[in-house]
Write a structure and sequence with these properties.
The chain has 150 residues and is mostly helical. The protein has a single domain, classed as NusB-like (N-utilizing Substance Protein B Homolog, Chain A). It has eight helices and no strands. Helix 3 crosses helix 5. The longest helix has 18 residues.
């Protein structure tokens, strides 16, 4: 497993804890920072994990809007917590991290969903992130086409 894949898993763990325990991301990051200092063998995954979590926290509302716009009838609150966290990571990589190719961001998110969530989660994550990467809105048309039709 690559350092970035480990970082994504580590970020997912932090996002999940914050959601389930209803804690601010800053609190979870503070706890993980202490753990990071006590576990130098995990250093390779720390920087990118922290970057993901901090980025999601800073752009949370925008990310959730993108997910809602592309999830076709699924409200964020109705999604399983794990799927919601995976989608937030995927959207952050697609929209806010130009260093990660779209195909890699989607594949990594789908892999996390396959290994950690429900049987239907991988397909759902793939569909939503594929629509986000393609710039397509809920109608299946491009964002520009949707705007022209209104």
């Amino acid at each position: 497993m690559s350092a970035r894949s480990k970082a994504r898993k580590r970020a997912l763990d932090m996002l999940y804890v914050a959601e389930v325990r209803e804690l601010p991301i800053a609190d979870v990051l503070a706890t993980e920072t202490v753990r990071h200092l006590d576990q130098p063998e995990r250093t390779s995954s720390w920087d990118y994990a922290r970057q993901i979590v901090t980025g999601i926290d800073e752009a949370r509302y925008e990310i959730d809007d993108v997910i809602t716009d592309h999830a076709q009838g699924w409200a964020i609150a109705r999604m399983p917590v794990l799927d919601r966290c995976i989608l937030r990571m995927g959207v952050w990589e697609l929209r806010f991290n130009p260093e990660v190719p779209d195909a890699v961001a989607i594949a990594e998110a789908v892999e996390l969903a396959q290994s950690l969530s429900t049987d239907d989660s991988a397909g759902f994550v793939n569909g939503v992130l594929g629509a986000v990467a393609g710039g397509r809105g809920p109608s299946g048309r491009t964002v520009a086409e949707d705007q022209e039709s209104h």
